[in-house]
Amino acid sequence: MAHTPLPRLALTGLVLCLAMAGCSPSGDGGIETGFRKEAGMKADTGDFGNATMNNHQIMTGEKQYVYDLSQRFASEVPTTVTFAFNSSALDATAMTVLRAQAGWIRQFPEVRFRVYGHTDAVGSNAYNKRLGMARAQAVVSYLASQGISSARLEAVVSYGETQPLIVTEGRERRNRRTVTEVSGFVASHPTVLEGKYAAVIYREYVNSAAPSSTLGQGSAGTGG
Questions:
Q1: Residue 164 forms beta bridges with which residues?
Q2: What's the CA gap between 19 and 38, in Å, rounded?
Q3: What are phi and psi of 196, to 5 degrees?
Q4: What are the backbone dihedrals phi and psi of residue 103, each rounded to the nearest 5 degrees, phi first?
Q5: DSSP character string of 46-108
Q6: Less Cβ crowding at N or C end of the chain, within 10 Å?
């Protein structure tokens, strides 16, 4: 059976319709988004730099060395201090722990650290995030007073009440804490520039560093 060819006008209209559909700025990946934008824009969702950095850290071994150093730090000094209810003040026990941390950190001028602040579940999440950050900043300030360069210390994240050690809606001192962690290496340090990460990790540390101590238990108050 013979096919009747489409009239020229109908054929032209069909082509125009298909072209408009393909070129519509619908943002769904059509010709418009691929043709009129810069090459590679669609592929780069904003995380390309992070992926590149991650690949570099894996290939150089830096990522594994950061993990190894974190494990060593956690095994040799206490990484956590706790706080009174609704307070960011450091008590005597906290200062003892932080002096031990500072003694360890001073042996590794190539290494950067982060301090994470936490609260218990009492109070609003917004208030507790601010309180957690205040606790992290108090720790950073104290470590800086012990001779640690503030350029190597970050109080950048507060988890507020979202990561409790003890799951409870009530007051719990163990949840009102900061945690100090190794976050990476100082990129401009000569040892790091030469890629001597292993030498950093296995360097001898001060034998007189303060040993781990049992943290004090809770005290009454009015905040998280």
A1: none
A2: 21
A3: -90, 55
A4: -60, -40
A5: S-HHHHHHHHHHHHHTHHHHHHHHHHHHHHHS--EEE--TT-----HHHHHHHHHHHHHHTT-
A6: N
Residue 201 to residue 7: CA distance in whole angstroms: 79
pLDDT digits (tens, 9 = 90+) for 13-67: 555 555 555 444 444 444 444 445 444 444 444 444 544 544 445 445 567 888 8
Give the residue with greater pLDDT, 220 vs 179: 179
pLDDT on residue 219? 39
Torsion of CA 167, 78, 84, 145, to 10 degrees: -140
Q: Is 0.85 surpassed by the pTM of this model?
A: no
User: In sequence order, what are the residues at sequence separation of 6 or more whose Cβ sits closer than 8 angstroms to the Cβ of residue 117?
Assistant: 131, 132, 133, 134, 135, 136, 137, 139, 155, 157, 158, 159, 160, 178
Burial 49-79 (b: 16+ CB within 10 A, else e): eeeeeeeebeeeebbebbebbbebbeebbbb
Token duo for residue 126: 């917004």
Identify whether the C-beta of residue 94 lies closer than 8 Å to the C-beta of residue 141: no
Question: Between helices 92-105 and 125-145, what is the axis angle to 10°?
Answer: 60
DSSP code for 210: P
Task: State how far the Cα of 202 lies from the Cα of 40, in Å rounded to an integer.
Answer: 42
